[in-house]
Amino acid sequence: MSGTDKPIGYWLKHLHNLIEEQFDATLGDLGLDRRQWQILNLLSRGARSRGEVEQALAPFWPDGVPELDAALNGADGLVTRGWVGYDADALTLTEQGRAAHRTAADRVGETRRLLLRGLTPEQYAETVRILSVMAGNLEAALAGRAAGGKQD
Question: Which superkingdom is the protein from (predicted)?
């Protein structure tokens, strides 16, 4: 089977696994995993409540259930390291967290450039659009099924 003969599910899963592996290689020496990077990156845009962080990151966690306690308060957690703190009920980056984010962001930018090499911005945008349409089709079908409706 050539690359173009493989189904989309193969490529989605394969790419997902490669992205996870690349994030480990890119950020591992900083003691960061992809989920912790996502938290740092989200908080770099401003303080967020725990619920907002959970909602924003739910699609990236197994079964859609964010494991924030480990990512924040575990042995290598972001709060434990002093990179994230609490301001009232909101999570926020500390000075150390902002510095860690800058370092990680430079590396993640390189990974993104590597991932997108050979693609135009238009090709990337079209790929994202197509995947969004496919996801929307299945979401609508599943919602219809859950509501007892008929699928096309």
Answer: Bacteria
